[in-house]
């Protein structure tokens, strides 16, 4: 009893230590990346007079003599006025520097990804989701090299001005940290399925540090990562712990030097009105349409890129950067860093507000403003919405680390702010609505649209801004977006669509009711050409078997060499381990035979060991089991292989991949191809694009 | 295809309509209850000069000429000063009225529960949890009568001054509304398991309206209601929808007349400090200890009540009210309504704050305050903590609707505020910490301790107060509480403990690892004395079979009358339905025989119908299946019955109840009784208590 107790305590301590290490490393990496990104971005617009290497926050924070050392917006403005932070003055020189630095950063990022760690490109959420649902991807995908390259290439990619966000990649490097740390601390004792719990928790930490949103991170783990597997309280607890500790570490590092983890704090003084609900619905509809079309177009472009651009990845990135920089430099909402731009758009514009230093033009529009000024701002918001959307379609999936969350939010914010200008001028008049809230809700709508998440988006948006009193409008917007998406037949977020498009193995819930699969049974799905293994087999024969069929992950064990008597299932990996540890022991013996026939005690113990490798009670179903029930067995019990058996005799084997293939085949027969790409149009696009290349 | 599409749309519309109706009714009931409770509570301290029937909020709100009509604290103070709301002046008369009204309200509540709807007593969360986990309780428990009585008795119970909260009962009446509405709108087409999704969603709505916390409600559904069943995105979506619509309805009703749904809004200007973390840990430890001991003591007292007080339920309530009123009247933190009291304790006490009308004595303590004044407040906080804890032990479970959430929070708030006074005077000095935050975090700790919820508590506390910047401290407190609870071996909240204590059927996750159950297999658990049904059986024999064994919920179907060939499983309910619809049709025929031997076409169609009642592919396991695997089958596949079969022959049957009984038996053998009550001590307590009775 004492031993059991000590073991229990020890297991607890190890768990907590593992989680804490993951979280602290994650917090440190996230903080460093944050500071690095800001430094690179700031270099494009100015420099610190005291020390060229500091970014603006650090430059301004260090000279403040306030003991708490916390920056507020006013301080930063003062800092610029006093010449501590020097913005570039010469307009032509500034433009040139802007372009040069964007290109250099982007080029570095693309080279790192292309030649050092190809796995570090893109977002990574889809692959992680597949992994934690039970299909291990390549080890390299979560390895140390990917972690390091992604952490370096991400700030470079963002500061190159491309329309890419850091959230997807944050999830990826967080999961890498989880993988590396768990392998380091407890490689021997941890099963694959146990490790996935840590990976999910790490992914929650990734969202938490990216958005400064610990609860949002936990919900992300639930709503995005666990849709294809069982969610349990142990995962929740691990996610909670990592999210908490990582965000606390980040807060301790204080990367923004303002003592806050929320990106853009706002304080909306006015309550929302019930008469605003139609506007919320409009924003929700926009979010749904945005999510549906942008993700489809992006997938089209990804397919196009594979076909035509796979050999010129770096050139593609460079062209994208040039186009982005050229278009963005002349639109004030596109030129700003996306988070900065959202800060401007979300702002409450209150006249009596405490921060009187705030005086952006967009807040000084009222009924008396000249129509030309109004139009200028209104149209530049609309232009920003459209251009950013187009840029996202082309940028997401390029050969740099790239997330789609923040760019999507930026699109929603400009759209929402445009709506607010319209409403304020033509419907309500001044000082009735809080225009910033529309930008904020618009951002929630597009984020919800592209990810197809509801609760997570609501919580992230609240945590991101502290705009607590707008929970109900947020929920309305996210609900409308979900309804729109679902009525467009687009029930999956972009991560799931990418999984489908790439043909990653993942059990999807059938989109339509499974009625059309009702007629099929396990007998239709099973593979009958299976290599079985005799119950009595010598070590050498076993070795030969394993060598002859290197792709088989296991073998059904039968008696008497016939399929009449199923004895169990032996998985390749366990057979291998046992073989290796027994390799040098004496001559070949029949290893799975009854104990009686064996001579020495040594043989007997070896037999026991081999016995253990055989699962004598594998999951079995009858051949007549209907498809829906079979599906439930795979889905709920999380098994990879099911044997088909009737009255003791072995008939066939069904792996998750068999099931999936069958399902996709039938679904395609029923509904046609998942993605129809117009070859002709692609050709035309290519003939146009090759002019630039 | 068109028909399928219409059906799909129609199903969608019906789902949305059902959810909306549940939510709107729930919002209206909650709003009415809120206003009613406030009215009753206010009557105890004063009356409205204009209209005796109005409560203070409505009395004061109606005379405000501000177009928005929203009350702030200052308005209410003005309202009292202007004599619109008249507080009782005569101290003796006030005391007498306070006692009389408390007794009358409590008596009414107890009589309603005792004689009209006994199911309306207590909290109800445990029973609902068991229900949604697959074990239907009595229909009456969620019926219209229970709904009505609980809605009337709840305001009465709260205004009687007892230490009971409205949150548990809110969940209960919300679930009643869900049950009544779903039965009304779609009685025929809804399966039990589908209805439970609506019930869970309704329970989420109950928490949402009780705390004004829509997201907290959804998380409650996940973290409390779904621990023993699979949680899926469909449940989340339903919960989200009901929570949103119910809270919006509530907000529209505006029961507090201040335009807010949060109960006690606070704005903590100062950030928390890293050096405060030890205090957060202390508060978390208190929460854990509180949760562990109070729930155990309460269960002891419930057992005591069953034994000695079951015949004097109403007298018990009256004595409780008198004792509560007598003790509370002279402690300012106990005398106030619990929510009002927490409002005082949570308050930020900021000197520069906007609401200068705030001037409670507790906010004017500083280093210069005379030690006597300090001690008076400090000790009255400590006394309130202890007395309230004791009152909770005796009150929760009495014969009135009673929740334990808010009383627990009140205990934590007084404790936390006492800690803040201590810290401010002896450690930090004035103006370093924000004292109100300790009360707020203390409330979170006790709430988390009594419910054993983490994420839900964090979200509810944030939504309840809007104290968004304290998410990290909140998460730390809740995490510490969970760790303390788990290291005390108390892994369940009070709802789960009540389920165990009452012996309700619910598959608990084994508390300790299942290693000690490793040696048991399906053969140990199964019942072999099962009545089987022959494949060939006449209608009359079938009828006889059903009548002879009225308690059997189904029969394994075998061939040839022996157990050699298992054919399937026929559930009682489906057999009954088929029998009834076929009763008057011709003579008895062999109903499950092969089609060939039957004469008429009519017989044939009848045969097909009976065939359908037999599940030819019931869930089966082998006798050697280990316990842990068996457990997983029940847990994950949510099945009620599993057949034990070896090579086609039937060996025995395992129902969920068999599994549960076996598990509890073995657990008791291993760890002793779950609850050990000291008979002797109970006797002594009784001999003391009977003096009062």
The CATH topology of the largest domain in chain A turns out to be Clc chloride channel
Q: How big is the Rg of chain A?
A: 29 Å
Largest sheet of chain A: 4 strands, mixed
Note the beta-strand portion of chain A.
5-15%
Count of structural domains of chain A: 3
Please state the second-level CATH architecture of the largest domain in chain A.
Orthogonal Bundle
What does the oligomeric state look like here? Answer: homodimer
Mean pLDDT across every amino acid position of chain A: 82
CATH superfamily of the largest domain in chain A: Clc chloride channel
Can you tag this structure with a few keywords?
homodimer, 693 residues, mainly alpha, Clc chloride channel, CBS-domain, 3 domains, three-stranded mixed sheet, 27 helices
Task: Report on this structure.
Two copies of one chain form a homodimer. Chain A is globular and about 95 Å long. Helix content of chain A is 62%, strand content 5%. The first copy, chain A, folds into three domains: 198 residues, Clc chloride channel (Orthogonal Bundle), CATH 1.10.3080.10; 233 residues, Clc chloride channel (Orthogonal Bundle), CATH 1.10.3080; 158 residues, CBS-domain, CATH 3.10.580. The first copy, chain A, is built from 27 helices and nine strands. The longest helix of chain A has 42 residues. In chain A, α22 links the parallel β3 and β4. About 2% of the residues of chain A have low confidence. In chain A, α18 packs antiparallel against α19. Chain A starts with a helix and ends with a helix. In chain A, the strands form three sheets. A four-stranded mixed β-sheet of chain A has the order 3-4-5-6. Chain A has a three-stranded mixed β-sheet with strand order 7-8-9. A two-stranded antiparallel ribbon of chain A has the order 1-2. With 693 residues, chain A is mainly alpha-helical.
